[in-house]
Amino acid sequence: MKPIVYVTRKLPDEAIAALGDQVEVRMWKEEETPVPRDILLKEAAEATAIWSMLSDAIDRELIEKAPNLKIISNLAVGYNNIDLDAARDNGVIVTNTPDALTEATADLTFALLLSTARRLSEASRALRAGEWKAWTPLGFTGQDVYGATIGIIGMGRIGEAVARRAKGFGMRVLYHNRTRRRFEDFIYSDFDELLKESDFVVLLTPYTSETAGMIGERELGLMKETACLINVARGGIVDEKALEKALKDGGIWAAGLDVFEQEPVPTDHPLLSLPNVTVTPHIGSASIQARHAMMQLNAEAILACIGKKEVQNRVC
Ligand code: GLV
Ligand code: GLV
Prior knowledge:
Layout (H helix, E strand, L loop, with lengths): L3 E4 L5 H5 L6 E4 L9 H8 L4 E4 L7 H5 L6 E4 L9 H6 L3 E3 L6 H16 L2 H9 L20 E5 L3 H12 L3 E5 L10 E2 L2 H7 L2 E4 L13 H6 L5 E4 L8 H10 L4 E4 L19 E3 L8 H19 L10
Parallel strand pairs: 1-2, 1-3, 3-4, 4-5, 6-7, 6-9, 7-8, 9-10, 10-11, 11-12
């Protein structure tokens, strides 16, 4: 009997083909809807490998009910959807897809930063709604990006790639990270100082018990009234209620959000009704090239594990 690989979402043929014919591939055949919990549990119970999406809760219950499971390979760099302790306790390897998405995610971060600063989605919506009556001297004026100060919270691979882009925009680059790193041009900053000094605060930390709710009322209160908050990491890092208040009261100037506490974010979410919020649907790594490269890494990790070879990109 061939080992079973369970793929939790419909993936392109070439990604599946990369698994070869030494495994039996089972797949949730929907592209738009995540696999329902009961089906996921049933499939996991027979699988040797699970190829998971960041929207799947791979928790202790699932892992303990999967006696054959050897590897969970997540199509993401983040892996907060997976219970690593449970994986370790059960001898299950977990892998992610770093590097392959670094530059694509940094591009989206910068796109969102620029859109937020220059009010692109608000202006575009107004034009389509027939609200462009005349060119006006101060219509849709935003904030300068060139020469401004960017503060990057979480200076990993993606943070560094964003910092390089910021240099091209003549920005002063501050960063805060658990461990201080050596850079010529990027300045390590105390957390509070970074919030006080930055025109753009960019969140790029993993979502952990330490970073949950890291940006709340106090932190937003430290930011400049002209500052923009850009979140491309995980929604739970920001207290959304506090953010809504700061955006309404003029505590900060605008926010660019690619991630939300609840995803998909409900369309009646109060943040979506604010004109100074620019939103995208969790598309940080969504370039064609990056997504295919990520899938390739997942397939390689699964095959290496099943072939009892060394597995790359392990997080546990
Ligand atoms: C996307 O959010 C990822 O973690 O890859
Ligand atoms: C704007 O279009 C300008 O010419 O300044």
